[in-house]
Design brief:
two-stranded antiparallel sheet; binds adenosine monophosphate; 7-stranded antiparallel sheet; binds magnesium ion; alpha+beta
């Protein structure tokens, strides 16, 4: 008789541990602390299969996703890193996250598998190492929405409820997120290395990161400088993508900026409704450091911290190293602008370039800001054949802009139909609207009803598909609703 017992091989786990080979200063052993009642409430089937994992087998192993039992082949560690938090340098490390290993996919790619909220680690300081259900579901939802929007991001494989409570503003249900990332190496990981003053460790980290994310550069004439430039280019592209959909990260500390170019750490993030560069949702960001309009500037500031940490690798003479670093960092603005302008042209159905384009785009944005127009829905309306709905578009200033824009579109060789198609591919019909996100998290947290988040996830899976007209998901919250506020997911 064949043995039908399910083994770990059936699940498809193939874990490697390249990060753990780095010098000791980069990691410490950390065991997940068992929880009372592991219950799997979210499992990402599509992501599981892309990782070579069998979702049906995973579904029977909630204990893998709390760490009550380690997944086969796991070597649990907490990663060390530092970071500038709201501009202030601090030594941090994974205080509530444990890296289990790197899953090698059938295609030979490598992805970190990390538990977020599995109990205290040597880096926990005063914290409990735990997470609450709401914020973990929020990360799952928004990261998957970002992925569907075509924006590089860490992914979410699972959420488990622990059966325990965590104490924050009150008692909340505890949960653990299983996060998947190209790596968890951050600007702050390099800052940690630099802060120790151990140059061989810094070099080992750089070699490891290049091997992982930019292997082609190992052959470059100046691999470390080329690597710095590649990270800058990825961030310029990433932040432009955020701006183009109105995503506000909320806590762009240097420990929350991944060198892979993936969006990481979904704490107080949210999408902007009406266009205003000063938009801030995070309750702790009182000075608007991480406001929508400030994100490109902050990204450049963070990259300057990376360059500083890498100085000893850039040139033997410090003055030369600083000159090279400065030159690279200064290029960020131009790279960002190029990505942003390209993206904006696509949002407006423009295939070619005219000198006046940027002025035309800025005029539209200025009008949107003045009239508190909804960012997503304005572009969505422009992508429709006719601007049907509201009085909003009857405005004289807008009509003048609209005629200019239509003239501009007739000056290119592509037809208006092709132009509209381009726009529809770049202007999402749905984004995670703040009130819909809250509604989904509340149903799950307060009523144990996960159907609302599942429905929302389904809608967010095809954000550019406008055959699905879903006004419920497309309308912003009432303008007389209280201002939306988000909180750090701690
Ligand atoms: P974050 O704001 O999530 O990026 O976290 C910033 C730092 O605080 C990281 O070093 C986290 O590991 C740590 N941290 C956040 N929440 C907790 C917690 N509940 N227990 C221990 N450490 C935490
Ligand atoms: Mg963080």
């Amino acid at each position: 008789m064949t043995d039908l017992k399910i083994t770990s091989a059936d699940a498809g786990w193939r874990l490697a541990h390249s990060y753990a080979q780095l010098p000791q200063i980069f990691h410490l052993a950390a065991e997940p602390v068992a929880v009372s009642e592991p219950r799997l409430v979210m499992l990402n089937g599509a992501l599981a299969s892309s990782l070579g994992l069998n979702a049906e087998v995973l579904a029977n192993h909630a204990e893998w996703f709390t760490g009550n039992r380690l997944i086969p082949g796991a070597q649990p560690i907490a990663q060390a890193y530092a970071g500038h938090q709201f501009g202030h340098f601090t030594k941090l490390g994974d205080g509530r996250a444990i890296l289990l290993g790197e899953q090698i996919t059938p295609q030979g790619e490598r992805f970190d598998v990390q538990l977020k909220g599995p109990g205290r680690t040597p880096f926990s300081r005063g914290g409990d190492g735990r997470a609450a259900l709401g914020p973990m579901l929020r990360e799952y939802l928004i990261s998957e929405a970002m992925h569907a929007l075509g924006i590089p991001t860490t992914r979410s494989l699972a959420v488990t409820i622990t059966g325990e409570t965590v104490f924050r503003q009150g008692h909340l249900r505890g949960a653990i997120l299983t996060r998947v990332a190209s790596s968890h190496i951050r600007v702050g990981t390099f800052q940690w290395a630099a802060a120790t003053g151990d140059q061989s460790a810094l070099k080992a980290l750089a070699d490891h990161t290049i091997q992982r994310h930019d292997a082609a550069l190992l052959e470059a004439e100046k691999p470390y400088l080329s690597f710095l430039e590649a990270v800058i280019e990825r961030q310029a592209a990433l932040i432009a993508k955020w701006q183009l959909v109105g995503f506000i990260h909320g806590v762009m500390n240097t420990d929350n900026m991944a060198l892979s170019g993936e969006t990481i750490d979904y704490g107080p993030c949210a999408f902007m409704d009406s266009y205003d560069p000063a938009t801030v949702f995070s309750s702790i960001d009182r000075n608007g450091r991480y406001a929508y309009g400030n994100q490109p500037h902050i990204a450049q500031w963070n990259l300057a911290r990376l360059a500083e940490a890498m100085l000893p690798l850039l040139h033997d003479e410090e003055a030369q190293a600083i000159a090279l670093a400065n030159e690279s960092i200064h290029r960020f603005q131009e790279l960002y602008q190029k990505h942003w302008l390209t993206g904006m042209r696509s949002k407006l159905g423009l295939f070619d370039e005219e000198e006046n384009d940027e002025f035309m785009i800025q005029s539209l944005l200025a009008w949107m800001q003045k009239t508190r127009a909804d960012f997503t829905n304005t572009f969505r309306a422009l992508s429709s054949e006719s601007l049907n709905d509201s009085d909003h578009f009857g405005d004289v200033e807008f009509q003048a802009w609209h005629s200019e824009w239509n003239l501009r579109r007739t000056r290119q060789t592509q037809s208006l139909t092709e132009s509209a198609e381009l726009m529809r591919a770049h202007n999402p019909a749905v984004i995670p609207r703040n009130h819909k996100v809250e509604e989904a998290l509340e149903a799950a947290s307060d009523k144990d009803d996960f159907s609302v988040i599942q429905r929302l996830l389904k809608v967010l899976e095809s954000p550019y598909d406008r055959t699905l007209d879903q006004p419920e998901y497309q309308t912003p919250a009432d303008s007389d609703a209280p201002a939306y506020q988000t909180f750090c997911g701690t």
